[in-house]
């Protein structure tokens, strides 16, 4: 549900060091965040505050991790929702939920004595697709308008400075009104990792696992072209399960090798149309 993330007692804090293979995305994002941190200077110079950052790219590449890392980097509270949370049958409910999440963010920032908050909206295209293109377009239009109104209302000297981070793999579906200056005017591409990126991610997700001497993660990285971070995380988990099934105390290279196929197979099964 909306805002749940902020009320759940701290899950492990995520920092940029926990994200593998996204150095250019992280660099771009940090630049934008450093800019925001300088809010007194921004105010003094009369610069329009940066309100929204949109992250684009395929699923499972770390967009959610990036938003959470951005929150710890800027010492902000973190509130998250998915575009589909705002889709309701009844007119006005989506818009109400948009206003509610902004309110929740402000309130929990005050409660936690923080000066800023990050609102993360995953699958934003669901709520922000081009107006007039949805079946029940009136309702969508209201929801999107509510988001635009909230964003337009953000000021640099607000008690709680809010930044909206949104993620989508369909930036082409977004209403252009959202991409105009003063709204989501920074775009950060979060692509599938290359070989070195995959190696970094594999290292991160095996750091808590006992690896046998013969494990060659570079080789695994070579074999996993097209895998996302989420696939790689799942691969390391599968490898550990395979080792456990054999009653072993360590994970061997062959387990990783076998897990590659498992993850690929799993993907194929997932993609089967529903009966
Ligand atoms: P979606 O668009 O499907 O929401 P996403 O891009 O937000 O996906 P995340 O939710 O951030 O992806 O990633 C899912 C999980 O995959 C993470 O919790 C993490 O375990 C792993 N993961 C994904 N990308 C990375 C990465 N770059 N480095 C380390 N782990 C990653």
Automatic annotation (TrEMBL):
Cofactor(s) essential for the protein: Zn(2+)
Gene Ontology CC terms: plasma membrane
EC number of this enzyme: 3.6.4.6
Keywords: ATP-binding, Coiled coil, Hydrolase, Metal-binding, Metalloprotease, Nucleotide-binding, Protease, Zinc
GO molecular function: ATP binding; ATP hydrolysis activity; ATP-dependent peptidase activity; metal ion binding; metalloendopeptidase activity
Ranges of residues in domain AAA+ ATPase: 49-194
Superkingdom field: Bacteria
GO annotation, biological process: protein catabolic process; proteolysis
Keyword tRNA processing in annotation: no
Family, as annotated: Belongs to the AAA ATPase family. In the C-terminal section; belongs to the peptidase M41 family.
Record protein name field: Vesicle-fusing ATPase
Lineage: Bacteria, Bacillati, Bacillota, Clostridia, Eubacteriales
Residue window of the full protein shown: 50 to 324 of 494
């Amino acid at each position: 549900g909306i805002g749940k993330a902020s009320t759940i007692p701290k899950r492990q804090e995520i920092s940029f060091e926990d994200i593998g293979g996204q150095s250019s995305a992280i660099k771009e994002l940090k630049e934008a965040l450093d800019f925001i941190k300088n809010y007194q200077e921004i105010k003094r110079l009369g610069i329009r505050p940066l309100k929204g950052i949109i992250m684009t790219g395929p699923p499972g590449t770390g967009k959610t991790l990036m938003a959470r890392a951005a929150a710890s980097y800027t010492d902000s509270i973190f509130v998250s929702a998915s575009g589909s949370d705002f889709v309701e049958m009844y007119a006005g409910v989506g818009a109400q939920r948009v206003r509610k999440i902004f309110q929740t963010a402000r309130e929990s920032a005050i409660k936690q004595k923080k000066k800023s908050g990050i609102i993360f909206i995953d699958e934003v295209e669901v709520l922000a697709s081009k107006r007039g293109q949805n079946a029940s377009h009136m309702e969508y239009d209201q929801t999107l308008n509510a988001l635009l109104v909230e964003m337009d209302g953000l000021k640099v000297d607000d008690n709680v400075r809010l930044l909206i981070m949104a993620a989508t793999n369909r930036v082409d579906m977004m209403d252009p009104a959202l991409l105009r200056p003063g709204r989501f005017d920074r775009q950060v591409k979060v692509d599938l990792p290359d070989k070195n990126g995959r190696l970094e991610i594999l290292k991160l997700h095996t750091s808590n696992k006992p690896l046998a001497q013969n494990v060659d993660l570079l080789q695994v990285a070579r074999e996993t072209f097209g895998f996302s971070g989420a696939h790689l995380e799942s691969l390391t988990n599968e490898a550990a399960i395979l080792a456990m099934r054999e009653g072993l105390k360590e994970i061997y290279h062959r387990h990783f090798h076998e897990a590659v196929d498992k993850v690929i197979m799993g993907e194929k099964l997932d993609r089967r149309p529903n009966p």
